[in-house]
Amino acid sequence: MADLLTTATLAKWTQEDPDEVAADPFAVDLIDKVSQLICYIGGHDGTVLEPGSDPAAPTYLPEWTLELGPTQAPIDVQMVALKVIKRSYQNPDQIVQEGSIGPIGGDRVAEIQALFMDFSEDERKVIAKYNPNGDPSGVTEDAGTIFTVRTSRGDETTLSASPLYVGDNMQVGLAESADPREWKIPMFNPGDPGDDSRYA
């Protein structure tokens, strides 16, 4: 599988010596692994069928490359490759602050979604939008949505999106009463099982 970044470009963006980066096995392996992962998420690793492909004579989406032409990776995908490889090469431990952190000390690292050789949510969306089957991890637009599982009979489905309402003090009646049982914070859709407007 073709690399989606050259060692010369990595050296330019990290301001390192091009010959040293080209000879660094970590840099070479990092470019290879991130490129493979990007092609897999984007559906351009040679294993994903083209939309409308004839099952009798299947055709597959071509592997992404850096070469000019129909197989060239889109520019936004190339920029994601550059960002992920650059940050992983310069800071493989993803440390954002060194030294004493609180009473125990230690280093503070980057958020989990941007750890070594992984992608942030936005970076992953940029790549996955080119995959006709969607993100292979199963992450969808509904990720992060609160769902309720209905247990009563007669529902068409047992899984449905459920909005969570949390208001400010005036909305929940804190200015009217100090009794928590009278704070009307709706956690359910009206009429859902568990919706008790009496707060008894």
Description of the structure:
With 200 residues, the chain is mainly alpha-helical. It is 30% helix and 6% strand. The chain has six helices and four strands, in the order H-H-H-H-E-E-H-E-E-H. It has helices spanning 7-14, 18-23, 25-41, 75-90, 121-128, 169-172; strands at 95-97, 108-109, 147-149, 159-161. A two-stranded antiparallel sheet has the order 1-2. Strands 3-4 form a two-stranded antiparallel ribbon. Helix 1 packs across helix 4 (75-90) and helix 3 packs antiparallel against helix 4 (75-90). The chain is globular, with a radius of gyration of 25 Å. The N and C termini lie far apart (64 Å). Mean pLDDT is 75; it is low at 112-116 and 167-174.
List the helices and strands and how they pair.
Layout: H1 7-14, H2 18-23, H3 25-41, H4 75-90, E1 95-97, E2 108-109, H5 121-128, E3 147-149, E4 159-161, H6 169-172
Antiparallel strand pairs: 1-2, 3-4
Helix pairs in contact: 1-4, 3-4
